[in-house]
Structure formats: C-alpha cells, structure tokens
C-alpha cells in the first residue's frame, strides 16, 4: 500500500547536512537542534512521543522508559557500530527494529588503534611534553627509549571487523598475529594468518594487546588486575572498543607497577574524562577522546548510513544493517 504521509522521526542531534537531507526528503523530521550537546533526558522522552522512527547517538540511553514514551516507535537507527547504550530487550519486546552503521568505520578505527599503539610504543606524547616543558637535554644512549613493534606479537581481543583490520595492518610490520574470540574463526585464521589463543595465553604471549570487543554483560570488566598481571613488563595495552571493558583503577595501578609497560586508550569507563582523571597521573599513556571513527569521510558516511537505515526500515525496504535481537 502507498504511504500517504511521511513517517515522523526524531533525531537526537543535528547531523551533517547530507544525512539531514535524506531524512527531510523521506520523513517529517523533528530534531534536538544541537551539534555538540547531548539531548537532555526530558527532551528525549518528549521527542519520541509521536514518532515512528528515532535516530540516536552513543550518548543517548535508549531504554524501557524511552520505549514506553514512544507508543508509535517502529525503528531505531544508531549512528555507531556499537549499541551498548540501547536496551535491545526493550526494543525486541515491542518489535522495534534496530540498525547500526558497521563497515564504514572499520578501517578508520583500525588506523586509530595503530596510531595509539605506535605512539605508546615510541613515547610520542611523552616526548612532546618533554619538549614543551623545556626538559629536552642532550642526546644520550637510553634517552626516551621505547619498544619495538616490528616482528613482535600482536594479540587482538574481539577480532570482529575492526579487530581483523588491526591484525591485517600487523602483517606490514611482520608481526606474529594472535586473536581471542568467544569462538574460533577458521576463516580469519586462513585469511589473515592469526592464531587462536585463550585470553590468558594471548595476554602472556603478546607484545601488544588491542581490545576491539563489543561491550556486553560478558565483556564488562574483563580486563582487571589479574589480566594485567599476565602481560609482559614490556607490553602495550590498547583499547579502542568501550571503556567499561577495562577496570580503570586496576589499569592505573598496573601501569604504575610496570605491567603493562604502556597503554593507548580511546575509550573510558565514564566519558568524557577531565584533566583530573587518574590515568593522567601515569606518564606512559596516550589518551584520545573517543575518536576511533572520527575522520571527515567516515563520520559523513556513518551519518548518511544511519539516515538511510532509518528510511529503509520505515519504508519496509531491505537494509543489511539490522541488529538481530
Ligand atoms: C561506534 O561506532 O561504536 C563508535 O564508538 C563511535 O564512532
């Protein structure tokens, strides 16, 4: 049956123009018209009251309260690959479809993992700070020495799309590749040449551990004191997944104790973190503000895809990006 009126949708942030244009063409759009600031809870609850579609970000908690406030809601589209801020059971109970934006950010996020990895290994941030403080003295043999990456062991925990892209880059550095997933992946092993390890073995064998696992009830807090204690005193720990996978207090203590040797982190238990965060009291960390997918091209592709996903679901068209409940 032909639709007579455009479906109503609510968007929780002003998105880049190409995405807004797609939404306006196909939908009656209402919007939290702000680029930088997340929508307050009461505005969100009010905003969803009359709509069939919701386009949201990782900063919005979409739970049973939101679902109850949205009696007509049929589709939720998140502009992200991760959707741990969304209560999928609450959506499933009402038959609401959830879509996300995988693939378009894979290579960009893998690049950031490598940026953190190399910067941590070679003390890039520490070096710049030393220069800024006017503390760069004459060259001496062990001045600012770091760790080699070339030919070492790279272990990825949660080798999905992004983790596999991280592993592929390791081939260019002649690294020995290891991965840990819930289940072994023979295709990954054959195509990338990575060997499966239990988590404990991966941690003790790897020179670099990169976390790319999703945040679930199972993975929350999976890196704590016991896991860091298994790592080599020369190892580097990188997290570009979600902060709550790591017990941050344990990581700070572990870094102080020298195992791991350094860390590169793009995500934190509670974001945004401030200048008083304990991680900033240890010298051997490189921190970025959750920018794994933050390139112009990728963020535009994510926003556009999120808009296309929402339109597709509301118009009953196929989209490959439906998250299975
Ligand atoms: C994601 O897509 O899940 C990122 O964390 C935000 O780009």
From TrEMBL:
D-isomer specific 2-hydroxyacid dehydrogenase NAD-binding domain boundaries: 115-292
InterPro entries hit by this protein: D-isomer_2-hydroxyacid_DH, D-isomer_2_OHA_DH_cat_dom, D-isomer_DH_CS1, D-isomer_DH_NAD-bd, NAD(P)-bd_dom_sf
EC id: 1.1.1.26
D-isomer specific 2-hydroxyacid dehydrogenase catalytic domain ranges (all copies): 9-323
Keyword vocabulary terms for this entry: Oxidoreductase
Stored PROSITE patterns: D_2_HYDROXYACID_DH_1
SUPFAM superfamilies: Formate/glycerate dehydrogenase catalytic domain-like, NAD(P)-binding Rossmann-fold domains
Keyword Oxidoreductase belongs to the record: yes
Molecular function via GO: glyoxylate reductase (NADH) activity; glyoxylate reductase (NADPH) activity; hydroxypyruvate reductase [NAD(P)H] activity; NAD binding
One Pfam family matching this protein: 2-Hacid_dh
Domain of life: Bacteria
GO cellular component: cytosol
Uppermost EC category: oxidoreductase
Family: Belongs to the D-isomer specific 2-hydroxyacid dehydrogenase family.
Protein name according to UniProt: Glyoxylate reductase
Taxonomy of the source species: Bacteria, Bacillati, Chloroflexota, Chloroflexia, Chloroflexales
């Amino acid at each position: 049956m032909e639709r007579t009126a455009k479906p109503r949708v609510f968007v929780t942030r002003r998105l880049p123009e190409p995405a807004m244009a797609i939404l306006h063409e196909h939908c009656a759009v209402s919007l939290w018209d702000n680029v930088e600031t997340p929508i307050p809870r009461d505005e969100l609850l009010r905003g969803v009251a009359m709509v069939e579609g919701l386009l949201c970000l990782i900063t919005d908690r979409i739970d049973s309260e939101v679902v109850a406030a949205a009696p007509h809601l049929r589709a939720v589209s998140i502009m992200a690959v991760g959707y741990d801020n969304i209560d999928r059971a609450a959506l499933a109970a009402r038959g609401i479809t959830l879509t996300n934006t995988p693939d378009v950010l894979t290579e960009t996020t893998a690049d950031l993992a490598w940026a953190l990895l190399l910067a941590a290994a070679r003390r890039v941030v520490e070096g710049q700070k030393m220069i800024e403080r006017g503390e760069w003295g004459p060259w001496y043999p062990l001045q600012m020495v770091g760790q080699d990456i070339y030919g070492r062991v790279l272990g990825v925990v949660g080798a999905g799309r992004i983790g596999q892209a991280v592993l592929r880059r390791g081939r260019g550095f002649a690294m020995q590749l290891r991965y840990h997933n819930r289940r072994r992946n023979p295709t990954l092993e054959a195509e990338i040449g990575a060997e499966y390890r239990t988590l404990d073995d991966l941690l003790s064998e790897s020179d670099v551990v990169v976390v790319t696992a999703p945040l679930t009830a199972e993975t929350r807090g999976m890196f704590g004191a016991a896991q860091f204690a298994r790592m080599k005193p020369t190892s580097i720990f990188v997290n570009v997944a979600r902060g709550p996978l790591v017990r941050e207090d344990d990581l700070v203590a572990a870094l102080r104790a020298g195992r791991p040797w350094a860390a590169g982190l793009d995500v934190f238990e509670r974001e945004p973190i401030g200048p008083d965060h304990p991680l900033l009291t240890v010298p051997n960390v490189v921190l970025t503000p959750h920018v794994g997918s933050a390139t112009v091209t990728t963020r535009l592709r994510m926003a556009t895809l999120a808009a296309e996903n929402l339109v597709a679901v509301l118009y009953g068209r196929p989209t490959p990006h439906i998250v299975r409940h």
